[in-house]
Amino acid sequence: MAKHTNTRPHKCTLCDYSAVEKKGLKFHMATHTGEKPYTCEFCNFATHKKTYLKSHVLTHSADKPFKCQVCDYSAVQMGNLKKHMLKHTQPKIKVKKEPKKHSCPHCEYETVIKEAMTKHIRTHTGEKPFKCQQCDYSAAQSGTLKKHVLSVHTSERPYNCGHCDFSSASKNGLFSHVRTIHGGERPYQCSYCDYSAAQNGQLKDHIMAKHTNTRPHKCTLCDYSSVTKKS
């Protein structure tokens, strides 16, 4: 009746545990006394429960009847096979690889974006692959060339300065003008010295002339070379 009524008449005198059957209490008491009457004949293993000993003895057997259906693994006990099967059923956690860093051969600049490194290296080499179709102007970046075409070869200058007669073909051009001419800012700071410039192009020319000794513009008649094309 105890199984049906959930009555647990056999109570432990050392804790709150209670059992339906007397043998259940006997197994529990072993956890308090440390008694382990069931011992393995092959090793020093001992336990308080007979079923635990039976499971243990199987580990000494060469017979492994529980076979994995996915790989060659086999186990002595079904429980071990179930644990093994989790390796096949659990989703594998992909470890995100740290992005490869690209290092500049001319300075300490690093980036994980290959295109950004290509643009950066041009500040050292002076390479300007983007050519204007209407004059001999060339630029290191396509965006710079577009600004050139708008400001030099078209009459469109929709961005007007509120402090003077200056107008610009781009919003960034107007912002740079106001910040540097009227605000006196020199936001482009050299990473090698205390020099700062109002424009990014001025900083690039400074780095090539003073720190990297890069002179990309060479004379076709003698050995003279310069940082800027007009010099």
SSE arrangement:
Blueprint: H1 2-5, E1 10-11, E2 18-19, H2 22-33, E3 38-39, E4 46-47, H3 50-57, E5 66-67, E6 74-75, H4 78-89, E7 102-103, E8 110-111, H5 114-125, E9 130-131, E10 138-139, H6 142-152, E11 159-160, E12 167-168, H7 171-182, E13 188-189, E14 196-197, H8 200-210, E15 217-218, E16 225-226
Antiparallel strand pairs: 1-2, 3-4, 5-6, 7-8, 9-10, 11-12, 13-14, 15-16
GO molecular function, one term: DNA binding
GO cellular component, one term: nucleus
Organism: Branchiostoma floridae (Florida lancelet)
Task: Give a description of the structure.
This protein has a domain at 186-231: Classic Zinc Finger (Double Stranded RNA Binding Domain, 2-Layer Sandwich). Helices cover 35% and strands 14% of the residues. It has eight helices and 16 strands. It has helices spanning 2-5, 22-33, 50-57, 78-89, 114-125, 142-152, 171-182, 200-210, and strands at residues 10-11, 18-19, 38-39, 46-47, 66-67, 74-75, 102-103, 110-111, 130-131, 138-139, 159-160, 167-168, 188-189, 196-197, 217-218, 225-226. The chain has a two-stranded antiparallel sheet. It has a two-stranded antiparallel ribbon with strand order 3-4. A two-stranded antiparallel ribbon has the order 5-6. The longest helix is centred in the first third of the chain and has 12 residues, at 22-33. It is elongated, with a radius of gyration of 41 Å. The model has no long low-confidence stretch (mean pLDDT 79).
